[in-house]
From TrEMBL:
Pfam families on file: DciA
PANTHER family hit by this protein: UPF0232 PROTEIN SCO3875
Source species, domain of life: Bacteria
InterPro entries assigned: DciA-like
Comp. bias (Basic residues): 30-42
The protein, known as: Predicted nucleic acid-binding protein, contains Zn-ribbon domain (Includes truncated derivatives)
Organism: Geodermatophilus aquaeductus
Biased composition (Low complexity): 18-29
Length: 166
């Protein structure tokens, strides 16, 4: 037989496979690459630091590390006002400002302002139990304010506006 005949496809595939095997054998063995960062250890059956945490626990740890506890307690007075004092009272008044332990509460009418002044010790006790004793120490209740005729930064003392046309 003569070698003039064309190579068969199986002979071409066999030659390519042998060449690939030879090239693979001449390469060095691959090494395991280490991922950058600290080496992780298995923490065992208990919860670990890198396990998923409830959001409330993460927020609490952030508040304590940033020393935001005082601001969050002040915010709780305003944010949870209706839950602290009850829906009935919260429907007729709202907290306005909290400065140096004094909470200013604005009532919708003078009757509600009088009622809230009588309930002030009870409201203070609820605030101490819910938020903490040192956040709100005094409660000042005011009624609705009358409309003011005063416009602008300057005013003149006296009776105010009156009929000057006759």
């Amino acid at each position: 037989m003569s070698d003039d005949r064309p190579p068969r496809p199986s002979d071409i595939a066999r030659a390519a496979l042998e060449a690939a095997r030879a090239a693979s054998a001449s390469r060095p063995a691959p090494t395991r690459r280490r991922v950058a960062g600290p080496r992780r250890r298995w923490t065992g059956p208990g919860p670990g630091e890198d396990d998923p945490q409830p959001l409330a626990r993460l927020v609490d740890s952030l508040v304590s590390t940033q020393d935001w506890s005082e601001q969050t307690r002040v915010g709780a007075v305003f944010g949870r006002w209706s839950a602290i004092v009850g829906q009935d009272i919260a429907a007729h008044c709202r907290p306005e400002t909290l400065t140096e332990g004094e909470l200013l509460v604005v009532a919708e009418s003078t009757a509600w302002a009088t009622q809230l002044r009588l309930l002030a010790p009870t409201i203070l006790a609820k605030l101490r139990a819910s938020v903490g004793g040192d956040v709100v120490t005094r409660l000042r209740v005011v009624g609705p304010t009358a409309p003011s005729w005063k416009k602008g930064p300057r005013s003149v003392r006296g009776r105010g506006p009156r009929d000057t046309y006759g």
